[in-house]
């Protein structure tokens, strides 16, 4: 763990972005980082600058005091502002401008995005910093920053994992609270999980929901918003993969059925007839003739 004070020791903010009235304290936490940024009573009403782009990162801002705004350059209508007692979480996948009001005190947490797939929409998520999960997170971050330099590597890794889990819980609460704009990202993440588990008997709505740290109800609602069901998607993908193996890998109908989660060859045949009006053999033959 390392701690630095000053204007330039941040992978998040460019060197020229912070003026002399801004103080930064940064704590490295394995592949995550905690920043405490405070702006003074600047005469011009605040300070502003540009973020450096951090690929595959989620950035969470918790504003204790003042105002912190984020905006995509050239698109002022896209600005997101977190005022005192609020938080904003976003993907850091593009260059962004920031602005801080005078006497602003904010904690900025940077985490790998892979741990939080499906829990953020493109524009980010805002909420109250006074909720119990946020208060637990800020207390945890305060403790971790205070122990900087004293924790052994195993404890650093544990602190990092605990931080990710706390943030996941916060974002999951937002998802389960019924945020409709998160549904498309959740569906994409769920489809990614189903592809990983497609050939396994353990694939179920509960398994996918547990992997994404959301409720089964929220998962079903996200797919319903798109006019489909999770298991309907799974059945279609299994049928697609079975037919691809019949066409390209030379498997028999029974072998393809066993490989992709069908009860037996009759089950696969019924699924193919129901979807395409043909048996698997007929479908593959017609596909070959068209190709």
From TrEMBL:
Keyword annotations for this protein, in alphabetical order, are: DNA-binding, Transcription, Transcription regulation
Q: Which SUPFAM superfamilies match?
A: Homeodomain-like
PANTHER family, alphabetically?
ARAC SUBFAMILY (PTHR46796:SF6), HTH-TYPE TRANSCRIPTIONAL ACTIVATOR RHAS-RELATED (PTHR46796)
The protein's organism comes out as Catenuloplanes nepalensis
Specify the superkingdom.
Answer: Bacteria
The name this protein carries in UniProt is AraC-like DNA-binding protein
Q: What is the lineage of its organism?
A: Bacteria, Bacillati, Actinomycetota, Actinomycetes, Micromonosporales
Which InterPro entries does this UniProt record tie to the protein?
Answer: AraC_XylS_family_regulators, Homeodomain-like_sf, HTH_AraC
Tell me the ranges covered by the HTH araC/xylS-type domain, including all copies.
Answer: 188-286
Q: Does the keyword Transcription regulation apply?
A: yes
């Amino acid at each position: 763990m390392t701690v630095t004070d000053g204007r330039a020791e941040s992978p998040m903010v460019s060197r020229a972005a912070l003026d002399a009235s801004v103080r930064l304290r940064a704590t490295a936490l394995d592949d995550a980082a905690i920043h405490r940024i405070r702006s003074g009573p600047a005469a011009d009403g605040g300070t502003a600058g540009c973020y450096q782009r951090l690929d595959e990162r989620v950035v969470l801002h918790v504003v204790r005091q003042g105002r912190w705004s984020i905006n995509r350059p050239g698109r002022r209508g896209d600005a997101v502002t977190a005022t005192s007692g609020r938080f904003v979480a976003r993907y850091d996948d593009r260059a962004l401008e920031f602005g801080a009001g005078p006497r602003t005190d904010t904690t900025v947490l940077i985490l790998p995005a892979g741990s939080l797939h499906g829990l953020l929409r493109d524009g980010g998520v805002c909420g109250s910093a006074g909720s119990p999960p946020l208060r637990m997170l800020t207390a945890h971050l305060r403790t971790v920053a205070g122990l900087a330099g004293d924790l052994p590597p195993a404890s650093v890794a544990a602190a990092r994992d605990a931080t990710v889990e706390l943030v996941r819980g916060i974002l999951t609460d937002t998802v389960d609270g019924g945020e409709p704009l998160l549904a498309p990202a959740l569906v994409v993440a769920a489809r990614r999980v189903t592809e990983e588990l497609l050939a396994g008997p353990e694939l179920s709505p509960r398994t996918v929901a547990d992997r994404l740290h959301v409720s089964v109800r929220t998962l079903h609602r996200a797919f319903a918003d798109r006019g489909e069901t999770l298991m309907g998607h799974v059945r279609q993908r299994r049928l697609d993969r079975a037919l691809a193996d019949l066409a390209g890998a030379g498997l028999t109908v029974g072998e393809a059925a066993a490989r992709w989660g069908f009860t037996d060859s009759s089950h696969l045949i019924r699924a193919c007839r129901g979807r395409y009006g043909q048996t698997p053999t007929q479908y593959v033959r017609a596909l070959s003739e068209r190709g």
